[in-house]
Amino acid sequence: GAVVSQHPSRVICKSGTSVKIECRSLDFQATTMFWYRQFPKKSLMLMATSNEGSKATYEQGVEKDKFLINHASLTLSTLTVTSAHPEDSSFYICSARDQGGGNYGYTFGSGTRLTVV
Amino acid sequence: QKEVEQDPGPLSVPEGAIVSLNCTYSNSAFQYFMWYRQYSRKGPELLMYTYSSGNKEDGRFTAQVDKSSKYISLFIRDSQPSDSATYLCATLLGGGATNKLIFGTGTLLAVQP
Question: A99 and chain B: CB distance < 8 Å anywhere?
Fold first, then answer.
């Protein structure tokens, strides 16, 4: 089945620094990838939709300049948290849509636990 | 009103019990419904999916959609400790390439051996 690899799985960074998270579709091409944020005991909140070769579409309330998304190829999307602050600490999860799976073809990465100290 | 509502639990059951997980949704236009299972510190994995109303069975799992009441259910028979996880219901918003998954809060299930 479709596999999405997300790295790193865990990262601790100092306040004010930037962190890059990678999301790769390993065995399929994904024109569309999604980035979610999940707080403890809360649901996944869609942050943005990443489109290969074009600008990402951000959800209302998500700061574009803070969460930079690049989808430079059909198998790789990156999320960069810029000038991270402790309130950015969270679990970030990416998802890629496998066209072959139709409306149910959303595969998720294993997530990245970001801790900003 | 949230688009998808789900009781966060936690829900604790003994091994072998039948588990019932439920969600309600607000938009009658939703057609595609999914259940995801998420283990601790992992990404969600697709467990079951259904289209419109009706039942779908896969092994010990049964997904049920009642569009008249906007109710989604997942039943787990003969529950096992390995079923302990967070279960998220989801539906699709939008159409075609702009489809977006909308998740419920997730229900934390613990199956006690």
Answer: no
- Please name every residue paired with B35 in a beta bridge, in sequence order, or none if there are none: B48, B89
**pLDDT tens per residue, range A76-106:** 999 999 999 999 999 999 999 887 777 778 8
A23, A103, A107: best to mutate for the B interface, most B CBs within 10 A: A103
E strands in chain A: 4-7, 10-13, 19-25, 32-38, 44-51, 57-58, 67-73, 76-81, 90-97, 106-108, 112-116
Contact B41 A113 (CB under 8 A): yes
Interface of A with B in 63-82 (CB under 8 A): none
From CA B58, how far away is CA A19, in angstroms rounded?
41
